[in-house]
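# step 3/5: fold
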Amino acid sequence: MKRKNLVFIICSLLVVMAGCKKDEIDTPTRLFRPTSESVLVADSNAILVSWLQIRDAATYTLQLSKDTFNTIEKSLTITDTGRVLITNLAWETLYHVQVKANAADSLFNSKWSFLGAIKTPKFPTILATPGLGDITDNAIRVNWTNSGAAVTEIRILEAADSAVVKSAILSATDITAQTKIIEGLAGSTQYIVFLYSGGTVRGWSNFSTKAPFAGNLVDLREISGRPSVLADTISSIASGSTVILKRGELYTISSAISLNKSITIVSGTDLSIAEQAIISMSSNFNVVSGSVIDSIVFNDVRLRGTDYAAKYVFNINTASTIGKLNFISCKAEIFRGIIRLQSQPAIISNLLFDNCILDSLAGYGVLTVDVATALADNITIRNSTIYKAERIIVSKNNSTSVKMENCTVNEAALGNGAYYIDYNTAASNNVTNGITITNCIFGVGKINAAGQSVRGIRANAASNIDASNNFRTSDQVSLGNDIPGIITYTRPSTQLFQDPLNGIFKIMDVTFPGRSNAGDPRWRL
């Protein structure tokens, strides 16, 4: 090939290649995705979003979603800026944010760029969130802190449709007290409470009313100043009835009452009265011979003996059976014993103390099965405080199970050798499914002239003892039969508890290893 032809071919190729490059540069391409300029900022119920601008972007599209863009809460088109403040959003809500750059020809829009997620803050409210103690089956106690403009009104809305069901204009007394009780609500219903200063919302909170009492109700709350009304009523009501007592009212059991029916005795709800109904007992409950009772329940009442001389809640001396005997959220104090199965084959299939304070009990303690033919089969004490008690559980017969869980025990059992749990060592006194003690704190023993030393558990060798996370204070002096694995803490009860002599067992020692997971939950840190 001649030299001049070769030069001509090369020049021709260069021209073609140059033309290709020019075409490529002039062809539009998809825009790059925007990238964040700074972190998302949530200020009040608004979110500030910023991103680096893209050359050749005509506009931007920004979207907000609460559910990772399955649904879009807001979609905005933004021009000439890479920053936008999105207002009027929901309070205390997590939002996801994405943005894309739009070209003049939508074919070349960028893909979506996820800029992150951020939660708007809680509404700046003066309203206190209602607690369980502020709500009943038909009322709510609304509390707030006076700040800024004076509060003027409370509205209760039904959550299902936001219909206003109650409205209360606040008096000067209400405002000063910073509290108001709203009554007349339905039980087991979801509501929203709103607090207003004029037309301005100062806060809101969702709540649900408690379930109302159900079944055959005998309501004694309208009867005051007649202490015998409970004793007078029990004999005439149907089995399975729930007797509702007035909070703070005194009721007396002045002569023995023998039961032959299921019954529940409970303090009624009343947000204006904190104190439980008081049942003062100069005598006790018994059971009609031959009775088979499904359940007896004491709920949220205070049972108080008049002295320690032969005063019990139950002193059963008949052949009878109780399926369930429950004490729920009760206080029992100043008794020779709470339950004594005195004689005859009296049987309690299931005995429960839950969230109770058991105080000042003499030699028959919480439970004494005082005859070998009687039986307390399954025994549970949980979330409770026992103090100033000479005994806790004593049985002359066997049981199926014994459980103590999340309990605080102090000044118990009687010093100089009493046991916390005593089944003695006879072959017949076996706990078939074992004794379980977990998350309990045992303080000093109850003082006796001979000292305060105590023993742990006495039971037949066949009775398995399962124990974990239990503590005793340094002033608890043991004479043996210790709870297996119990941990001796280095400080005495007077340094672990706030005021044990007066029944205040709030843990005040922040170094105590069981401060958040042992003892009665009401006292934990």
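# step 4/5: annotate
The radius of gyration is 36 Å.
# step 5/5: archive (pending)
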